[in-house]
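Q: My labmate handed me this sequence with no annotations at all. I'd like to see what the chain might look like in three dimensions before we decide whether it's worth expressing. Could you predict it?
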Amino acid sequence: MANYLGIPSGGTEETEMDLMINAASQWALEYTDRSTIVRNTSLTEYYDGDNTRTLITRSKPINSVVSINIDTAWAYGSDTLVSASNYTVYTSYGMIKTVSDVFLRWPNSVKLVYDVGFATIPWDIQSAVKELVRFWYERGTGARVGVRSVNVGDKNITYETDIPASVKRVMDQYVLWRGIVR
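A: Here is what I predict for the chain of 182 residues:
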């Protein structure tokens, strides 16, 4: 990244750049509500059933489903396992649909063990984080960056003061839906 911005390696500016990269990466995780955006990880989660054959997971993309149990007694034994042949996984949507089993309407009646996350960070996320670091760096040097709007008549120029809209547009595609609209 330092090369990208023409910063000499080994100096104080490169150390500051590393801090900005970490901060921008952390911002991306928090903005998208993803703790798994950068790594493949195994999760065990419990869901309230809703008497449908569709389960929307809390994390995505789904790499694989280890097991699904439907059990209103919360024992989650082998007799409550859903057969792998009885469901389809829609990986990028974070959705599982059963063929015949229903996710029973009961608190924590569904136990899901699955692997989620990106083995490799998608290129557009990498690019957006890089753009955010560049924006922060250039803004820190006093440069006027991130033009938001220009009014020709009175020559008014408005600059981005927060996160550039182009970065947010990319990250919005990866926001996990939790009933809150951004």
